[in-house]
Structure formats: C-alpha cells, structure tokens
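pipeline: protein-struct stage 2 | run 1193 | EAL domain-containing response regulator
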Amino acid sequence: MTSTHPNEAAVLDSDQDVAASLSLQLHTLGIRARYYRSRRRLLEELDRRRPQLVVLALEPGRIDGIAVLRDLSRLGYVGAVLLLSGVERKVVRIAERVGRTLGLLMLDSLPKAFRLAELRQRLDGLHPLPREAWQAPAAPPARTVEEIERALTQGEFLVYYQPQLELAGQRISGVEALVRWRHPRRGILVPGQFLGAMTLEQYRRLTRCMLTGVMADVARWPTLQELDSISVNVTPEELMSEELLLLMEELRAGLAKAPPLVLEVTETAAMDDELLGGEVAARLHLHGLELAIDDFGVGFSSLARLQMLPVSELKLDRSFVSHLQEEPLDAAIVEAVALLGRRLGIRVVAEGVESLATLEALARYGCTHAQGYALAPPMPAEALAGLLTRHAG
C-alpha cells in the first residue's frame, strides 16, 4: 500500500555518522529523516514513501550522485533535492545543472561540514507537498506536434515579462519577454514543458507570435514604452532570417514609440561559425535592433570575438550569482565580467537573483542590472504595467 510522508526526507549517504547528524538537524526543523545507504533501496521505496525532500551525498565512492539524479527524474520525483557535497565546488555545479536540466527542484547545495542555520536557510520556503501531488503522476510534457499546431492556430501561447532592475537608480529599466502556454487542460505551462517538442517551423512561428504579442502589449500599455529595452530569446537560425528583420520593421512602423528590442542568443550559439564574423549582429544593429548574449560565462567565449560582435548586453549566468556571497571564485568572476562590460560599453545583467541581499554585492562588484524572482517573477503585461506605474510613483 502506498503511504504519503509529506514531512519526510530521504537521506542517501554512505557515511553513517554524517547521516545521523543530518537526521538530527532535520528533526529539529520538523522533518523526519529516513536513512539509506543503498541507491537501489531508495529507488525501490521512493514511490511508496514519497518524501518531500531527497538529500543526496555527492562524493567519490560507492554512490554515483549524478546517476541518482537521473533516476529521480526518470521516476517522476516531484519533491526537492538537496546535494550534500564533499567534492570540489565545480563538480557540484555540474551536478546542480544536470538536476535542473532534468526538471528536478534543486535546492542550493550544502558542504558536508555545515551549521543548522545553513540547513535552515536551504530549506526556507520548503512546504509539505499536497496529497494530490502524489495521487497522480506529474503531468507529462506536451509532445505531440498536432497539439502544438492547434495551440499556435488558436493563440494559446502568451507573453509574460520578467523585470530587470537598474542597480544604480533602483528603477525597472527593462524586461525579458518569456513564453507561456495556456493549455486548455493543464493550465499555464513553462517552456521546458513544450519547446523540445516543437519542429523548427513551429518554433519560427512561435517567435513571430512572441514579437507580435510584445508590440501589441507596448501599444496597449503606454507605460511599457518608457522601458530602456525589451528582450526576446531567439535561435541563431532566427537571426539569419531575412523575414525576421522585415517583420520587425513592419511591427515598429505601426508604433509611434517603442523601446529598443534586444534579441537574446545563448553564449554558445553566439560563438558559432555563422556569427563569428559579426555579419548578423551588424545587420541587426543597422536595423535598430540590439543583441544580447544569454547565459554568459558557461560557454567558451573568445574575448576577441566578443569584442568584434556589436553586443549591447551580457546576461551573467545564474550559476555565478546564486552563491556570490559564499564563493570567492564566483565573486571574482562577477567582478571580472562587470569590468569587461564597462570597458566594452556593454550592459551586464545578473540573472537568477533569488535574494535581495545579493543586490548589494552585485552593485559592489560593478554589475549594472539584475533580474530574478527576488525582484519579481514573470508576469502578464497588465500586471507589469501596474508594477511600472507603482514603481514610478
């Protein structure tokens, strides 16, 4: 018989002393811990016990923590995962990124030698999972081309906006436009639940829906016209499209005033051979569009190539921001990228800001802009317009 343990944590660690100490501290925080030394045993009991938290040791030895992350994803685990690490921070980051890519709810990891206050901070905001979350498997990602085709035809894709804060003036200076799917049965879906199922042609149509939606919102809500920039994510293939430039000219011609549009590509994509000469970025610039490099710092950029590209914005990857105050290496990287941005005349936006305390450190290291849930989550245009009005007042 399946039982539900919403206040239970499953701890997988080969070190019994560490597990015992952790179990005691979890108990202090109101979470009962169940200790496992075997990966197989944990996976066997996962569906039956259904804990709200899995604490996973990441260390050399018998337990392959990254393999366990893949197991948790395969089994549809919907709780949170906390890595307890005894290895180099760089390895932990890889594991965290693997977990997030697999769709797991990854909490900030802990070193093996930690204090109760640190554990409490990691678990802050972690609530017992509702019973209904366990009574049915998590909704699978939408995978059918036909379903996406219907959504494109019937206008089910929406534009949400996440504000960017200018640190010097403490004002909302820009936004990033993010796609959401208003699914008729499953509610609001995020990109990870459907982008991978799209054909190239469907993705192109989605980009055009996004751009059209952004311009319609700018026309509908005059406060959006006061922004310094609106960013939209595109692929390198989109940047190479003559149709994209023509569409942008047509959309902007219908507006008396519109903020600059910034097209975001990932760092790896921006450094591909197609863009190395800067032809595409230069054409965007000539057409009054700007180019941003997303997830900066996780690829392998050539700084000489970056200097050649007419880039207006670097978006510093969240992996450098989330541990900024605890990791001297992260702080050094943020400071170096901020200095690079100033020297090249490029905005530097820190992504993934989840703590207001991080803002002071970002400003101290020379970062000019920030974006993240600590400032504001993605929201519909009408909510953004209201936020801009209140912020201006």
